[in-house]
Amino acid sequence: MAVFRVNKDKNYTVMSNHHFRNRELSLKAMGLLSLMLSLPDTWDYSLKGLSTICGDGISSVRAGVTELEKHGYVVRKRVRDEHGRLADTEYSIFESPQNKPVDNSQ
User: Fold this and answer.
1) pLDDT band at 83 (very low <50, low <70, confident <90, very high)
2) Dihedral of the CA atoms 30, 71, 65, 33 (nearest 10)?
């Protein structure tokens, strides 16, 4: 049997397999999280920016991010300006789920 090996000496990403093994995640969410984990730490995450680089529409990316939030891989924080007004959204992306928020909508 032939064995093929890929020489990985530059421009590759090492990440946890956790999200690939999570059967609760859709393939879209797995791919989106993998893309997000491959971006530099300084990359400015936005739905429009993610939409541009992945080729899906903003609503599709929003659905994927919402799914990742639901499962604890993405934590979203609203940032306020010096006057207390909502100014921006800060996303934190994790290789394994963080504590999931309690859903009190039921």
Assistant:
1) very high
2) -30
